[in-house]
Each structure stands twice: as structure tokens, then as C-alpha cells.
Amino acid sequence: MKTYLILLLSLLTFNLYASDFSGHWAGDGKYISHSKSYLCSQYRISIMATQENLSIFNGSYTCKGKLIELSDYELIIHNNTLYQQNGKQVGTISDERITILGSDPSYEIFISRFEKNLFVIESTITSSREEFMIGILR
């Protein structure tokens, strides 16, 4: 009985933090590199998180008049690890953050929830450049 109670509590806890990321988020952002920075607007992203799946879709923002569309993700969650449909490990999820590594090894997405805000940080870091897009969404 004790084992079942522990399992139930862990599943409920997971559902709570996974669902904390779910929703349609909108706000503004800022692009930053070693040589420039500028504000971006109309940042939008949708997230659907369940105990077993994480979907990130309809992500976009406008910087300097140009619409930038983010890649969609359909990921499987197993033991707080994120996998593509083909079984490749691409990130992690916890009660505090989601981290996804892009197909380009220099690209990473970091998503964190604090109070009513969702913070989305895209980073591209190579030996010749460092670029960040930081979104603050509600």
C-alpha cells in the first residue's frame, strides 16, 4: 500500500509541474549578441505538457520587422528526460525548467516558469558567435 501511495504522489507531482508549463503564452523579447541588441515584439508560444508528452508549437516573434518562426516539438517524457519520436534524447524537464538541445549542437532552448511569467531563452553559442533571444511571456 505504501508503495502505491508513493507512486500516486509522484505521478500527481509530475502532472502538476508538467501542466504548469501548459498554455498559450505571449509577450515580448530581446535579441542579444556580442555586437548588438534590440527589442522584439509579439512573442508567442504554445505548450501542452502531460505526464507522457511535451508539445511546443506555434512559436514566433517579430524582430526588426521580420517574423521569426520557432521549430515545433513533439517530445516523449520518460523519467524527466525528453526524447524525439525516434528515441533520440534531446533534453530534460523538471518542476523548474525545460531544456531542449537543437539538432545543431550549438543551439539550445531553456524554458522556465516563475510566478505568472514564462521565460524562454534560445541560445546559439559557437567559437565565433554568441546569440541569445530572451522572451518574457504571460
Describe this structure in words.
There is one protein chain. The chain is mostly beta strands and 138 residues long. Helices cover 14% and strands 60% of the residues. It has one helix at residues 2-20, and strands at residues 23-33, 37-49, 53-63, 66-69, 73-78, 81-83, 89-93, 97-101, 107-114, 117-125, 130-137. A ten-stranded antiparallel barrel has the order 1-2-3-5-6-7-8-9-10-11. Strand 8 (97-101) and strand 9 form a beta hairpin.
Beta-strand content estimate = over 45%
Structural class: mainly beta
Report the major sheet. 10 strands, antiparallel, barrel
Q: From N to C, what is the helix and strand string?
A: HEEEEEEEEEEE
N→C terminal distance: 41 Å
Q: Helical element count?
A: 1
Shape: globular
Pick out the low-confidence regions. Answer: 1-17
Number of strands: 11
**Order of the strands making up the biggest sheet:** 1-2-3-5-6-7-8-9-10-11
Percent helix, as a range, is 10-25%
Overall average pLDDT = 87
Q: What is the CA-atom radius of gyration, in angstroms?
A: 16 Å
List keywords for this structure.
single chain; 138 residues; mainly beta; ten-stranded antiparallel β-barrel; disordered N terminus
Summarize the structure.
By secondary structure, this protein is mostly beta strands. It contains 1 helix and 11 strands.
Task: Give the topology, please.
Blueprint: H1 2-20, E1 23-33, E2 37-49, E3 53-63, E4 66-69, E5 73-78, E6 81-83, E7 89-93, E8 97-101, E9 107-114, E10 117-125, E11 130-137
Antiparallel strand pairs: 1-2, 1-11, 2-3, 3-4, 3-5, 5-6, 6-7, 7-8, 8-9, 9-10, 10-11
